[in-house]
Write a structure and sequence with these properties.
The complex is a heterodimer of chains A (125) and B (158). Chain A has one domain: Hotdog Thioesterase (Thiol Ester Dehydrase, Chain A, Roll). In chain A, a hairpin with a 7-residue loop joins strand 1 and strand 2 (23-26). Chain A is an alpha+beta fold and 125 residues long. Chain A is built from two helices and six strands; from the N terminus they run αββαββββ. Chain B has one domain (7-145): Thiol Ester Dehydrase, Chain A (Roll), CATH 3.10.129. Classes of the chains: A alpha+beta (125), B alpha+beta (158). Chain A: Residues 37-112 form the Thioesterase domain.
């Protein structure tokens, strides 16, 4: 999938390795800066939502369902520092009408997430 | 003990003085405020589009808008600019934002404790009675010098 303009504004690049879930990478740029030296929480949230949509789109595959966000809950755990932030989504349930998706964002190690999100999507066919 | 600054937090001047950062990049501006609430604007911008087929902006910029509006509401209720970090934020997306319209986000701080602020808010694109998003969240106050750096901050402390 092609990432939308908003993902490009954040500088997000998709890394796809065969056999591994897609990871998104967001570099530390003035565009994502919050208070000095830290990634803005809104940019982190935007990255998490994009990771969730990528994971859901891949899980849907050839299924042409349209995806509408119902809600998102973001937990902020650590400050994002001046380095790239990575994120990946996981589809925890893919139903006929509703999809539950989780996403985590990390910098140094995936075991130390800096933020995580839980999302509900409506699938419209 | 540190002495507290005596000036009151002024969101209009805060946004005027802002020099950059994510909030400025997505175009968030000041509109109005009261004792415990703030209204910020997010003008429509093609760079924010999340769905190219419809031109609807991504949900991320609305998250940023509401994070900042609720954050400013806390500074207003406390009467001063103090370091704080978002602990969590939940957004219900009631309907898509209409392409071309400015989104207005209103954040309110409805409860303060010694270390936690509880916030809520709504976003609309012209009619406050037809909101497009509803938010609820919590912030934590972080001491200068021992800041954990969690989450966001809306920009540059002067």
């Amino acid at each position: 999938m092609t990432l939308p303009p908003y993902a490009q504004l954040l500088g997000i690049v998709a890394e796809r390795d065969a056999g591994a879930p897609t990871e998104l990478v967001m570099p530390f740029t003035p565009e994502v800066l919050g208070r000095p030296g830290f990634v803005h929480g809104g940019a982190l949230g935007g990255l998490l939502e994009m990771a969730a949509i990528v994971a859901l789109t891949e899980a849907l595959g050839a299924d042409a369902a349209r995806v509408k966000p119902i809600n998102v809950t973001v937990d902020f755990m650590r400050g994002g520092r001046e380095k790239p932030t990575r994120a990946a989504g996981t589809v925890t349930r893919l139903g006929t009408r509703i999809a539950n998706v989780e996403a985590v964002a990390w910098q140094d190690s995936r075991d130390k997430p800096i933020a995580a999100a839980r999302m509900l999507y409506l699938l419209v066919r | 003990m540190r002495t507290q600054p005596t000036f009151r937090f002024d969101p209009a001047r805060f946004f005027e003085a802002r020099t950059g950062g994510h909030g400025a990049v997505v175009g968030i501006g000041y509109q109005a405020h009261g004792d415990d609430w703030a209204e910020l604007t997010l003008p429509y911008d093609e760079r924010l589009i999340g769905d190219v087929a419809t031109g609807v902006i991504a949900s991320g910029p609305i998250l940023t808008l509401m994070d900042m509006a609720t954050s400013v509401a806390i500074w207003l209720k406390r009467g001063q600019f103090v370091p704080q970090a978002t602990l969590d934020l939940r957004i219900d997306y009631l309907r898509p934002a209409t392409p071309g319209r400015t989104v207005i986000g209103r954040g309110e701080c409805y409860r303060l404790t010694r270390s936690i602020a509880f916030v809520r808010g709504q976003a609309h694109d012209g009619d406050p009675d037809d909101p497009l998003a509803h938010v609820a969240g919590t912030f934590m106050f972080t001491e200068v010098g021992m800041s954990t750096g969690v989450g966001m901050a809306t920009g540059v402390a002067k």
